[in-house]
Specification:
By secondary structure, the chain is mostly beta strands. It folds into three domains: 68 residues, Immunoglobulin-like; 123 residues, Ferric Hydroxamate Uptake Protein, Chain A, domain 1; 502 residues, Beta Barrel (Maltoporin, Chain A). It contains four helices and 44 strands. The protein has a 22-stranded antiparallel barrel. A five-stranded mixed sheet has the order 8-13-14-11-12.
């Protein structure tokens, strides 16, 4: 006779409408098409039932809840916009309806199903998320993929901080983002918190924080993704995890290549124009050790190796980035929770620059820059809850050493930057209120700038002390939460902005060692409506004013080239409305969407009063997204992704107008065997012409791309 420990329990998982949920994870098994799976029961065993898009549910298989051979019915609730989740970007675990911040979580399922090849493609499902230009990062020059939220715009540098597990991912030298750095299978989800967050994160978090939440190895598992697409594109990804006796580990790899496409519009192309393409390899290794029942320590390494053609025969770039992280987490009911991180980066970026003649029949090499950079840093954090109070305190430091060496011009300029900050937060949650006050003191400096070769230039240092407070208030009613917040934020200039001349196409941008840090003040207020049966809607009004914003100001223009210089404008202001919604009209249909209206303009600039009132470059007034997803266990998944932007401008003087556009993407998936899925997607189904930039020649965004692949897990 089988013992209680050997008996099996049948777990049947249903959604709130009673439909079976296939593919839900129950212990190490997955539910079949009928929503059921047999798992080992007996004793006091408890397991979690997990499915992307649903809230996690704990189930006991023994101790009176279920006997051997019995059936346990589990109902999973849809994880809507108001669902209780841990908002790690806010550094305090909060339900979304208790957070004054505007937060959007992209689940692992949503990231996989978003057509595209890189993380920035997936994040375009969030209204208001934009890169510096409309070109996807899989063909774009890395110096043009700084990200913008809340209509604040960007240059090469992001006014939004991107990080993962406390470690900043913004490029150590230039501040832009390498969106293919982390293997996609090693990303659990991505959280976007919009609005100033320097009160907790310091520099760069003027527009918000994007937190890439990593997969943590907890058990044995594997995943494989093989795909091919038009434009001579292929993608191979794999990941394996294992755990035993308190030890766990993870290994992940991503191999991507594409022939790309020619960015220059057909009417301007010449013999020198070639397809912008990329070959990239990224990998991750992690080893973790449990310490007691509520703690662990780990070490992690990540590598990105990438080579790109930038659209002509002689223009290309490449980067190799090693990132390493070590740390630990510990939670004690009496002492609180503790976090420690040590991290570093060693990277080498290279890029060639050329001049092209008016007929685009020939080009000449004008510069070859090599930019090595090293970065070390660390973070500590403590948090503790006392009844209706939650307290958080922490500190971090980041030290960067970088060099720009022009090997053709025989000049080299090196410098060092350091940022140190301490912060604290007090959260008070009496009954239906949630009131959070946080603040941070930062010291930001740039020093030891040295030039070898070339014409000597003044290289002053930067030494600034910044205090950034933030207050957030939430009042919850039965179905409605009203929110409001006000903040201060800042961003220190990158070494790229201070010391390095750059070029995109025929647009040359000069450095400016006289730059000072950007300072921002802002507020937002809004509400969240949660009607469980119909869905949820969140809306807000925002206002942000940035003093001394760094912008590329046009110095001179010809028919084939532009000369710009980075300068501190007097002031820019962004104000507008955002709305997001998620509804499930039927159990097999979900509809999500968002809309942002942003009026972003220059409001002060004494050096050139003609720029006052002009639109902030690369920021449209209107942007919207809409996703409709259909899922039937028998047939699979079909989703439609529609997004569009209004017109925008590519320069401070608003002379180069980029037309608005709409783009339709499709995704389909079918499970043909347990853990085996085939899928196909199409980007820009109608092959809409998307004006990406004018430098001053017109460049284009992604044409129609069709992909097919297989996933095994």
């Amino acid at each position: 006779m089988a013992s209680a420990q050997d008996a099996t329990v049948r777990v049947c998982v249903r959604d709130e409408q009673g439909a079976p949920v296939a593919g839900a994870r129950v212990a190490a098994a997955a539910t079949a098409a009928d929503g059921c799976v047999d798992v080992a029961g007996g004793g006091q065993t408890s397991v979690d039932v997990v499915k992307d898009g649903f809230a996690r549910q704990a189930v006991r298989l023994g101790g009176g809840s279920a006997a051997g051979g019995s059936t346990v019915d589990v109902v999973l609730r849809v994880a809507g916009l108001s669902q209780t989740v841990q908002v790690t970007a806010a550094r305090v675990p909060l339900a979304l309806d208790a957070s004054a911040s505007s937060v959007r979580t992209m689940t692992g399922e949503q990231l996989k199903e978003a057509p595209g090849f890189s993380l920035d493609d997936s994040l375009r499902q969030v209204a208001g998320f934009q890169l510096f230009r409309r070109t996807s990062s899989w063909v774009a020059n890395p110096t043009t993929v700084g990200t913008s939220m809340r209509g604040l715009g960007s240059t090469a540098v992001s006014r939004t901080l991107v990080l993962s597990d406390q470690q900043p991912l913004n490029d150590a030298y230039g501040g832009w983002i390498h969106w293919d750095e982390i293997p996609s299978l090693a990303m659990r989800e991505v959280e976007l918190m919009r609005g100033g967050a320097s009160d907790l994160y310091g520099s760069s978090a003027i527009g918000g924080v994007i937190d890439v939440v990593p997969v943590v190895p907890e058990k044995f598992g594997y995943a494989l993704n093989l795909a091919g697409a038009t434009k001579d594109t292929s993608n191979v990804e794999g990941m394996a995890t294992a755990a035993k006796d308190g030890w766990s580990g993870l290994g992940a790899v991503s191999l991507f290549r594409t022939g790309g496409y020619i960015l220059t519009a057909p009417q301007f192309r010449g013999p020198v124009d070639t397809a912008s393409n990329v070959h990239s390899q990224s990998g991750r290794l992690e080893l973790r050790r449990a310490v007691g029942s509520e703690g662990d320590v780990f070490v992690r390494g990540n590598l990105l190796n990438e080579a790109r053609s930038n659209g002509t025969v002689l223009q290309n770039n490449g980067v190799r980035i090693w990132r390493y992280t070590a740390g630990g987490d510990w939670n004690d009911a009496a002492a609180g929770r503790f976090l420690v991180r040590f991290y570093g980066t060693n990277q080498k970026y290279r890029q060639s620059f050329t001049s092209v003649n008016a007929t685009r029949t020939s080009e000449k090499l004008t510069g070859f820059h090599v930019d090595p950079a090293q970065q070390v840093g660390g973070a500590v954090q403590w948090g503790k809850s006392y009844k209706v109070w939650t307290l958080v305190a922490g500190a971090d430091v980041l030290d960067t050493r970088g060099t720009d060496a022009d090997q053709l011009g025989a000049t080299s300029l090196s410098a060092r930057q350091r940022g140190e900050g301490v912060y604290g937060e007090a959260l008070w949650q009496p009954k239906s209120w949630s009131i959070a006050f946080s603040s941070r003191f930062d010291h930001f400096s740039s020093f030891d700038a040295k030039q070898v070769g070339g014409t000597p230039q003044p290289l002053p240092g930067i030494d600034e002390k910044v205090f950034d407070p933030r207050l957030g208030v939430v009042k919850k009613f039965k179905w409605v939460s009203l929110t409001g917040s006000a903040f201060r934020a800042f961003r220190g200039p990158s070494q790229n902005e201070l010391y390095r001349q750059s070029q995109v196409g025929q647009q040359v941008t000069l450095a400016n060692s006289q730059l000072r840090a950007e300072r921002a003040t802002g507020f937002e207020f809004g509400g969240l409506v949660n009607a469980r049966r119909f869905g949820s809607v969140r809306g807000s009004y925002f206002w942000t004013q940035v003093n001394r914003p760094v912008a590329a100001v046009t110095i001179s223009t010809t028919a084939t080239s532009q000369l710009l210089q980075r300068q501190n404008l007097g002031q820019l202001e962004s104000r507008g409305l955002t709305a997001e919604w998620e509804v499930r009209p039927w159990r097999f249909v979900s509809v999500t969407g968002g809309y942002q209206f942003a009026v972003s303009t220059v409001t002060k600039y004494q050096a050139d009063a003609t720029l006052v009132g002009k639109w902030t470059p690369q920021v449209p007034r209107n942007s919207a997204t809409l996703q409709a997803r259909f899922e039937k266990a028998k047939w699979g998944v079909l989703s439609f992704d529609l997004r569009g932007n209004g017109h925008q401008f590519d320069d401070q003087a608003n002379q180069y107008r980029l037309a608005g556009y709409g783009q339709l993407d499709l995704y389909a998936e079918h499970t043909f065997w347990r853990g085996w899925k085939i899928y196909s997607s199409a980007q820009n189904v109608t092959n809409t012409t998307i004006q990406a930039g004018k430098t001053p020649l017109l460049t284009l965004g992604t044409p129609r791309i069709v992909m097919a692949g297989i996933r095994i897990h």
